[in-house]
Design goal:
globular, single chain, 5 helices, 5 strands
Length: about 130
Amino acid sequence: MSRKSPIKRVLVIDNESYIQEITKICLETVTDWQVITASSGREGIVKAETEQPDAILLDVMMPDMDGLTTFANLHANALTHDIPVILLSAEIQTADRRYYSEMGIKAAIAKPFEPLDLAHQIANALNWEV
């Protein structure tokens, strides 16, 4: 008898509400994951602390606190340090991927992303089953 794994919870931190909505619809349609959203780095840090998601999708380009600064704050926080982070970015170069990996970021997904492939990209990066 196989035991079903608990439902994954993913926090999406992106200042664009339509990206939050598309991501939420895509992931909840293709998987049984629960999606939590935040509109800024500061809000995302608070939600990461309180919600303790299984992973974070983090936009790189945001006003006030960009994605890399948000990641640095998450990484320095004992409550959120171990939550895997995947960046969402409009421009990703090979050198960027190497740099992100060295920082401790699990993966980077290019925007615009293919909605029906997003769950598989996340699952591949984190060794999850879809």
